[in-house]
Amino acid sequence: MSDIAIKVEELGKLYRLGEIGTGTLSHDLNRWWARMRGKEDPFAKIGETNDRTTKGSSEYVWSLKDVNFEVKQGEVLGIIGRNGAGKSTLLKILSKVTAPTTGQIKIKGRIASLLEVGTGFHPELTGRENIFLNGAILGMTKSEIRAKFDEIVDFSGVERYIDTPVKRYSSGMYVRLAFAIAAFLEPEILIVDEVLAVGDAEFQKKCLGRMKDVSVNDGRTVLFVSHHLPSVRSLCETGLLLEKGGIKLFDSVGAVLEKYQNSDHSKHDGSRSVLPVQCPIYFTKWSLRRTGVTSLDNHSAYSKDLVTFELSVLCEHNLDKVEFGFILRDHDSNIIVGINSRDNDRDFISFAEGIHTVLFEMVLPIKPGKYEVDLAIAASGNIVDHWVSDTKLSLLNPYDTVLDDKWSGLVNVDFNFDAYA
Amino acid sequence: MQTVDVIKAPSSVVANEDEEWTEIIAPRTRLLDLGLRDVWRYRDLIMLFVRRDFISTYKQTILGPIWFFIQPLLTTLTFIIVFGRVAKLSTDGQPQVVFYLAGVTVWSYFAQTLTATSTVFIANAAIFGKVYFPRLTMPVSIVISNIVRFFIQFGLFLAVWLYYVVTDDSLRPNWLIALTPALLLLMGLMSLGLGMIFSSLTTKYRDLSMLLTFGVQLLMYATPVIYPLSSITDPTYRLLILANPMASVVETFRYAYLGSGSFHWAYLGYSVLFTVVILFIGTIIFNKVEKSFTDTV
After folding, report:
1. Of A345, B65, B84, B150, whose Cβ has the fewest other Cβ atoms within 10 Å?
2. Could you give the maximum distance between any two Cα atoms of chain A, in Å?
3. pLDDT-derived band at A264, boundaries 50, 70, 90
């Protein structure tokens, strides 16, 4: 026996766009007639790839096409992609909610999906009754649920309200209970979609921990779909990047996340593509000031080098009490650097009408990677311009390393190293 | 959006290579594969659905389960006034209360089961679209919870019936009472089959749900509920009434408990045959639709 838990072969799903109404019946009859004569589906071949931004000529669209991949037992696979890339369709087919149009999926083991927590909760029933009902919907038997009942209640933290109808629950309690039931399912394969977008921070942490527990300690296979990239990074080993209904990249989670983050930015010269209107003062461009000769472009530097950010500012009319905000964000949207032009005991500045250059000089002792540049101008205490540049700052590693990115931490500290015999 | 079946067969598979897989998700399954084993595995869920139906129906009502009795009693009362007193329709010489109550008890089981099963896909679209469990558990649980409801109402009927058996000698109950479970099963399967067909087709064409709601009401008049079959003397109309597979069921029930009306194995046989055919068609359609209805609903 091989250790493959899920094998997806030539998977495809064709959707018909537009309204269902008149015309449907005639299409159905056409298709039925073709099938009777053993011909190809007259509508299938005109299907187009799934790209929501361009207007297609066909009514039919392949939401997924020619998708092939394998998941090993005990592997945690993260599935990412833009809205409409086919993630949900893939999950729906995997969890048998809808059937594929072509191809097949071979599965080893029981599969359970959490496409949305709390499905099948009945508002009139109490928490206790809903645990049994929801557990059964997710495929547990009554005795399995009874055995886990106390753990579920404990994990959810709604013990006091367990005999109250769930319609009286706050939405947070509702979600807690729902996730708790799902967390104690025991299928060999678990499919999770976006459930972590709910609940408070503490509970989210608990959920992530539980999912890690499920995969690491119990050796179960998990497919995880989320837009929350930090959780994907921390949970998954491998990643699957979907784009327009096909597989863009199927690799380690680090490689996939990097590809995903770099795929969307078309402008790289640091200039602002859409300038604000009726704004007294605004940014037009950012770049790094170059003094010597370098092979780097104007938006890249080595970690721990002294760098000077050059911000071009256009001032429409004379302004007093101006200040600047400067923020760098990492790939998970955490703010790594956040400074204000007044931080070093500097006072507000006055600006005359015209083009100005603003400089921020700093050493960035942070790990190599891509950073989002987020700038703001305030005048007399009000923010008048806020610009998140499409161009990211690239911090490079001055030397090659065998260590994976994910071990490098946040801060690139100065340190000494010694070794003795 | 709506899904489309493509006539591209799944790539042919070698049998012995597939044995290690628990499950293969493919575009299409065999026509008659109802997945009854799967349904059996989810039997706890069926019972929980039944329980849910009962608890949720009468939560926040004052009278609670008493409504089970009020419904047939008020219907019977209305029938007595409208059809018995005003229209003076025949009841084959039987006490009106027993006559109408017998018809109402049997008919409401069929009508309620059919109406509820026929909306299975639309009413549960949200949950069906999110999680998989054998879709058949839903209509089956509806049939069962209506059986429970039937037994409660049947108990009411038995009480009234016993009163008249003791006080009135026009009732002539006979051995056909033994057929009661069979009649119940027949009605359950018939409404299940019809319900599966209607619920499957309404996912795409909503017109049918319009038809069904008042169709069931009208069908009652084509069933000997408020009149005995014997009062239909015109052979053409009689044939039309008998073409309704529920006619013989109601007639047999009344014949068994009251002794009036008619009973023929042939009529009942027709109903059985009808049920088998409907279940067969219903299974095929339900099977086809359950795999992709989330895209069309």
Report:
1. A345
2. 85
3. low
Residue B18 belongs to some domain of the structure = no
Identify whether B19 is part of a domain: no
Q: How far apart are CA A144 and CA A139, in angstroms?
A: 10
Domain that holds residue A331: 281-407
Interface mutation vs chain B, best among A17, A59, A108, A124, most B CBs within 10 Å: A124
What is the maximum span of chain B, computed from C-alpha positions, in angstroms? 74
Q: CB contact, 8 Å: B126 with chain A?
A: yes
Pick the more confident residue, A265 or B236.
B236
- Using DSSP's 3-state secondary structure scheme, residue A126 falls into strand
Chains A and B form CB pairs within 8 A to the count of: 157
* CATH number for A50: 3.40.50.300
Give the H/E segment covering residue B103: helix B96-117
CA separation (Å) from B28 to A155, A284, A324, B73? 40, 57, 62, 48
The interface residues of chain B toward chain A in range 128-157, judged by CB-CB distance below 8 A, are 128-133
Q: Does a structural domain hold residue A50?
A: yes
Residue B103, in any domain of the structure = yes
Question: Is B107 within 8 Å of B201 (Cβ atoms)?
Answer: no
Mean pLDDT of chain B: 85
Q: What is the pLDDT of residues A266-285, one digit of tens each?
A: 456 788 877 887 888 999 99
Between A152 and B56, residue with greater pLDDT: A152
Among B155, B94, B147, B97, smallest CA distance to B117 is for B147
Strand duo A369-379 + A319-329: pairing: antiparallel
Q: What angle do CA A410, A416, A417 make, to 5 degrees?
A: 100
Residue numbers of the domain that contains B79: 31-296
Indicate whether A46 pLDDT > 80.
no
Residue A9 within a domain: yes
Task: Name the DSSP letter for residue A160.
Answer: G
Residue keyed to tokens 């092939």? A68
Interface test with A, best of B40, B42, B44, B292 (most A CBs within 10 A): B44
pLDDT in tens, A361-379: 999 888 888 888 999 999 8
pLDDT at B12: 40
Confidence of residue A51 (pLDDT cuts 50, 70, 90): low
Provide mean pLDDT across the span A70-76: 89
Mutate to test the interface with B, among A29, A102, A145 (most CBs of B within 10 A): A102
For A176-184, what is the mean pLDDT? 83
Encoded tokens for B291: 């795999």
Same domain, A258 and A285: no
Q: A74 burial class (0-12, 13-18, 19+ CB within 10 angstroms)?
A: middle
Q: Does A414 map to a domain?
A: no
Q: Which residues pair with A355 in a beta bridge?
A: A314
Residue B47 confidence (pLDDT): 93
Helix (H) or strand (E) run with residue B210 in it: helix B207-221
Q: Do B22 and A109 touch (CB under 8 A)?
A: yes
pLDDT given at position B16: 45
Chain A: nearest CA to B24, how far in angstroms? 4
Could you give the angle at the alpha carbon of A36 between the alpha carbons of A34 and A40, nearest 5°? 35
Of all helices (H) and strands (E), which one includes residue A358?
Answer: strand A354-363
Could you tell me which of A409, A408, A391 has the C-alpha nearest to residue A300? A391
> How many domains is chain A partitioned into structurally?
2
Q: Which two tokens stand for residue A349?
A: 């500045």
* CA B114 to chain CA centroid, nearest Å: 4
A313 and A230, same structural domain? no
B44 with A142: Cβ contact below 8 A: yes
Task: With respect to residue B23, please indicate whether it lies within any of the assigned structural domains.
Answer: no
Q: Kindly state whether residue A130 falls inside one of the protein's structural domains.
A: yes
Give the chain A residue nearest B17 (alpha carbons).
A1
**DSSP label at residue A418:** -
Q: Which H or E run includes B79?
A: helix B67-79
